[in-house]
Amino acid sequence: MSMIESPLFWPITLKNSTIYVLDETRLPEEMVYIKCKTIKEVVRVIKEMKTRAFGQVLIVFYAFLMVLEKNKNSSPEKLFIILRETAKNLENARPTFPFKDFTRPVMGWAQEAINMKLDIKSMKSMLEKRINGYVSTIKNARYARATKAAALVKNNDCILTHCNVSGELPLMAQICKKQGKNIKFIATETRPYFQGSRLTAWELNYTGFDVTVIADNTVAKVMQEGRVDKVIVGADCLAKNGDFANKIGTFNIAILANKFKIPFYVLVPPASNYKTGKDIPIEIRPDKELLEYKGIRFAPKNVKGYYPAFDVTPNELVTKHIALF
Question: How does residue 293 score in pLDDT terms, banded at 50, 70 and 90?
Answer without folding.
Answer: confident
